[in-house]
Amino acid sequence: MTENRRALTGIRVLDLTRLAPGPYCSMLLADLGADVVMVGGGRTGAPIPVLRRGKHAIEVDLKTRKGRALLDRMVEHTDVLVESFRPGVAARLGAGHERLSRINPRLVSCSLTGYGQDGPLAQRAGHDINYLAIAGALGTFGAADAPPTPPLNLLADFGGGGLLAAFGILAALHERERSGVGQHVDAAMVDGVLSMMAMPFADWGTPTLPRRGTGALTGTMPVYRTYECADGRYVAVGALEPRFFAALWTELGLGDGTEVPDHLDPAGFPELTRALETVFRSKDRDTWAAHFADSDACVTPVLEPGELAAHPHVTARHPDFALDRVPAVPKFSRTPAAPGGTPAPEETVAVLASFGLTPDEAARVVAPRDAATGDLSWPPITRPHPGSTQEGMPQA
């Protein structure tokens, strides 16, 4: 029914990616209603289980003539193909854009890699931390007296990788409406991080960000950092603007609002820091959270992941939130996004019909249901996992 349609309903996606960035990209597309088919088989590695929701899974060995022939037939009815091989590998497997676009000129192909399709590092292996390093971002993270510290693998893998790829794919699909033809999207995680660093790069070497670990947004300025509370937990303070700081100062009981110190004057930072540290240590985190609940002082509790499902703002916007089921985003007024479950094999068979497969052909390639959930641990710390040295493995 029309009211159940989502923004990408009717878009067909073949996902050849592994690990995290590519599967996150296709998860975003699936949440928006695209029919996403993960193509596994014949290679090591697998998508991270939590990123496989709402996707159909098939097993096709692209190193065989039969497998490539099947891919060709599916591509005839495909809108988007996403791959994360090292440059040149997709072409050797028969999945390169130049060849596939001759089969389906409307195809949008996206190659999601760390370093991109060209350049001196294009063939190098890497992970999020390497792309952050090359993009100049890692050199700005962490305390000045400690080694640079990556913000988990959020910035390159997910922001500069999966999200950038989804953005590029949607732009190419939009352009296709005008031109009638698809194109290739070269989504490089280094490029994505370079773009996301636009503001920090402009601030680099200025008083706002003079060096790593020092500056307005690095967590060292008294009004933009975290403070330990009486129970050992923390609150985050972001009172940058004068009126927000005035509210902070007054509501902490440090003044009546008539004499507020200059919170942006570095000369006063040591004294201001001591004052704020002392007062925040006087009560526990949740007491401070309640105290500032209706305030514009920009004070919030620092929540751990396990606390999110009980937080009133998270539950108000996402009543079904769980750590293994993050929300489908963004929110739409008419065509809401929705996280999918693990499709049953018969559902996958039905979807594969739209990719040009007969029911018998679809039944032969549908992956076992556990292939869409899996048990891969990544990074491979808690259980054995095959090495990722093969040329076809993704840069992730």
TrEMBL record:
<dbReference type="InterPro" id="IPR050509">
    <property type="entry name" value="CoA-transferase_III"/>
</dbReference>
<dbReference type="InterPro" id="IPR023606">
    <property type="entry name" value="CoA-Trfase_III_dom_1_sf"/>
</dbReference>
<dbReference type="Pfam" id="PF02515">
    <property type="entry name" value="CoA_transf_3"/>
</dbReference>
<protein>
    <submittedName>
        <fullName>CaiB/BaiF CoA transferase family protein</fullName>
    </submittedName>
</protein>
<feature type="compositionally biased region" description="Polar residues">
    <location>
        <begin position="387"/>
        <end position="396"/>
    </location>
</feature>
<feature type="region of interest" description="Disordered">
    <location>
        <begin position="368"/>
        <end position="396"/>
    </location>
</feature>
<dbReference type="InterPro" id="IPR003673">
    <property type="entry name" value="CoA-Trfase_fam_III"/>
</dbReference>
<dbReference type="GO" id="GO:0016740">
    <property type="term" value="F:transferase activity"/>
</dbReference>
<keyword id="KW-0808">Transferase</keyword>
<dbReference type="InterPro" id="IPR044855">
    <property type="entry name" value="CoA-Trfase_III_dom3_sf"/>
</dbReference>
